[in-house]
Amino acid sequence: MIRANDNYNKLKASYLFSDIAKRVDEYQQKNPEVQIIKLGIGDVTRALAPAVIKGFHKGVDEMASDATFRGYGPEQGYEFLRKKIAKNDFHARGADISPDEIFVSDGAKCDTGNFQELFAGDIKVAIPDPVYPAYLDTNVMAGRTGEFKDGRYKGIVYMDCLKENNFLPELPCENVDLIYLCFPNNPTGSTATKEELKVWVDYAKENKALILFDAAYESYIRDEALPKTIYEIEGASKVAVEFRSFSKTAGFTGTRCGFTIVPKDCMVFDSKGRKASLHAMWNRRHSTKFNGVSYPVQKAAEAVYSGEGKAQVKQQIAYYLNNADIIRETVESLGFDYVGGKNSPYIWVDGKDRDSWDFFDLLLTRASVVCTPGAGFGRCGRQYIRISAFNSLENVTTAMARLKEALK
Ligand code: MLT
Fold it and tell me: Ligand 1: does its nearest atom lie under 6 Å from the Cβ of 41?
């Protein structure tokens, strides 16, 4: 008899963003005349930058001739891309990451979800609340949790991120082995300073723990004093893995490319307490289960680091950040408290006494605007909604005018 993984029964029936899409589709079908504006899932709307398209085309053209055709590439990614990443994203920030510590992949969602496979089933996992749901759901699937009760899974150490602590997770009271952090944060848009990250690096060193650091939104950091990579913190390469994505940086949500940094001096421990190389383990996993990102996509990603590419991508980010400013001004003028939107494309709005799904429904039905209900990110999000800045300026402006009308 083929038996199912019972852990799947603990999960909610569908993934947050699938749930929202279903509700929005139903509403649209009932109201076909309405022009819905989606500020829910963080999906970019602007075309790939011209330099990126040029790189992409070049890659495709090379595939058209026997002389330059490429078959299987290195599972870890082509060196031409890994070298550019190391130089531009890490060496430029004083972080000593070498190209062979970079694993190119089809995006940060897969890597943040898959990485937990490397660890024992009975480790203690600390996860912020609210949180990007993929971290939590993949640990549920792997059987690291008990049942879901009152908005929480048994066995997970939740780190509440609330107004009172500036939406920054605090060190857990009990010992934990694996810590998920994300800055600039999804969903709250909050950021962490070097000093704040150092606290976590020190904790991980002291407790032989590991940090999984999601930096998918680093390119939205405007404040030069803020760290863009955890490896700006001394000693972090011994205790942290970092996830990056071209999705939000360069509009690759539909193109698919990201990368994960697994430093060579980052160690894990076997059941006898002996050190093992995390880099070797991830390399083994990656080369067994993944066959590399397509050549044209890696050529497109490489072009992000050209002079032209950098300037064009910077402009795209500025465009979305301008949207974020408009959203912040609107929610502020409506008297709501919020966080985020300054160094992040997300604005986390306190709905005061409103339940987040009610707030979501209200915006959908009264303004035809889609946001993301905070409850979907965890119990601490129950009175919040997340508004995303990823849309056209015209749509964001219209959506904010509708919000003002609906909520006045
Ligand atoms: C989000 O809206 O939280 C993200 O777009 C989801 C993702 O990156 O997978």
Answer: yes
